[in-house]
Write a structure and sequence with these properties.
The protein is an alpha/beta fold. The chain has helices spanning 10-13, 18-28, 42-59, 69-75, 89-96, 109-118, 143-153, 170-175, 185-188, 193-211, and strands at 4-7, 32-35, 62-66, 79-82, 101-106, 122-125, 159-162, 180-183. The radius of gyration is 16 Å and the shape is globular.
């Protein structure tokens, strides 16, 4: 479903807009781009989300909105990603219906089981490695967290690893059992966003071919 999952970060992008960054990510091979705008007002975020949804349709890729169920619905995004302190999964499902993707962040097997039982379409586990992108998240859970959660949920939904993932460790999370990797700084903070996305996606694809 999602092998390379790119997440925007305005502070890292500098003069590059979220929309331009998303285009570069899609061109580089990202399967999905998540819009994360923690400090933006709703009106601005909605306008950006609408542009990114149109872009995702153009490239036939996925577009996910972080946290904001209302923005995801109004922009007709493919999905929304929720954390443990956001609107509960079951309530979000009542709002968005069955067609919209809902992803859930977890940091342990118990949370993963609850997300699975609640109807999550994919589960994101992290932070696997230390990261400054989400200082409020559990830090450096390690690869064992992926093993534990994969054992708990089996292959029922995709499992995405997040947190401190870069070209030096991306294959480690795949080998640990993640279906894909969510990446922020290893793409958004790079001078060549498209090239960074392409390199990471190629690494995953080549590794999968070698394992066939």
């Amino acid at each position: 479903m999602f092998e390379l999952y790119a997440i925007t970060d305005r502070k890292m992008l500098g003069n590059t807009s979220e929309v331009d960054a998303a285009r570069l990510c899609y061109e580089g091979g990202a399967d999905v781009v998540q819009l994360r705008m923690k400090d933006a007002d709703g009106g601005e975020m909605l306008e950006v989300a609408k542009e990114m949804e149109a872009l995702a349709n153009e490239y036939n890729r996925f577009f996910i909105v972080n946290d904001r169920v209302d923005i995801a619905m109004l922009a007709h995004a493919d999905g929304v990603h929720l954390g443990q302190t956001d609107i509960p999964l079951r309530e979000a499902r009542r709002l968005v219906g069955d067609d919209m993707i809902i992803g859930i962040s977890v940091d342990n097997a118990e949370q993963a089981r609850e997300a699975l039982d609640g109807g999550a379409d994919y589960i994101a586990v992290g932070s696997i490695f230390t990261t400054s992108t989400k200082p409020d998240a559990a830090q450096a859970l390690g690869l064992d967290a992926i093993f534990d959660i994969r054992r708990e949920i089996g292959d029922e939904v995709p499992l995405v690893a997040i947190g401190g993932i870069n070209r030096g460790n991306i294959l480690d999370v795949i080998h640990a059992g993640a279906d894909g990797a969510a990446v922020v700084s290893a793409i958004m903070a790079q001078p060549d966003i498209k090239g960074a996305a392409h390199e990471l996606k190629t690494m995953i694809l080549n590794d999968r071919r070698m394992c066939l």
